[in-house]
Amino acid sequence: MTAPPGRLVVASPDDVIAHSDELVEIYAEAFSQPPWSEEPSRVDMFRRHIPAYSRRKGFAAVFAEGDGQIVGFALGARLTSAAWWWKDVASRLTGSQVETWLADCYELIEIAVLPQVQGKGIGGGLHDRLFEDVTTKTALLSTHPKADRALSLYRSRGWKVLIEDFLYSPVASSRLIMGFELPGS
Questions:
Q1: What's the domain count of the chain?
Q2: Cys-Cys crosslink for 97: which of 36, 45, 93, 160, Cβ 3.0 to 4.6 Å?
């Protein structure tokens, strides 16, 4: 696989907080595009969650830099029963699936890339670098079922759909919950 354009930088929790305004702008631009079409309230929710994400066990962040600015990022952390969506996911899985997928799990919280540089391998580079140091057996993420680029990226890395019609709330649109068995697990 070829390296994405620009530079990937592992970021500390303090880096994430210091650059949170830039990350929120990237998030807003990336997820205001169809099929996501995120409302401003979702962007604000992401802004509010950044400090909590950065304090989670196993938190990791990678920034993609290009032309002297951050053009994309990936965030992840261990997924435990303390995470706000863990119980909702667990309720949709069988007992053996909960043990397989949630007992030793990492959450891919977000990958976001500015629309003008999407399709250049940056998302794949962010994904791969984020998972280089992850030691859990599995990982989970949620994505839009019509996010073709994201789905292509995840499927090419070995992610598979675990739940097809997951709703975070009665007003949210349906999402896919995807699982990934980490190499060597």
A1: 1
A2: 93
Strands 138-143 and 69-79: unpaired
Read off the CATH number of the domain in which 158 is found: 3.40.630.30
Average pLDDT over residues 44-55: 96
What gap in Å lies between CA 160 and CA 77, rounded to an integer? 19
Token pair in block for residue 40 = 């401003």
- The tens digit of pLDDT for each residue in 84-109 reads 789 889 999 999 999 999 999 999 99
Helices (H) and strands (E) in the chain, counts: 7, 7
Are 79 and 140 in contact by the 8 Å Cβ rule? The answer is yes
Give SS3 for 112.
strand
Q: Which two tokens stand for residue 8?
A: 């990937």
pLDDT tens readout for residues 108-153: 999 999 999 999 999 999 999 999 999 999 999 999 999 999 999 9
Centre a 10 Å sphere on the Cβ of residue 70 and count the other Cβ atoms it contains. Answer: 19
Q: Tokens at residue 98, please?
A: 């909960």
Q: Please tell me whether residue 107 adopts helix, strand or coil conformation.
A: strand
CA atoms of 127 and 52, how far apart (whole Å): 21
Q: Would 1 be classed as within a structural domain?
A: no
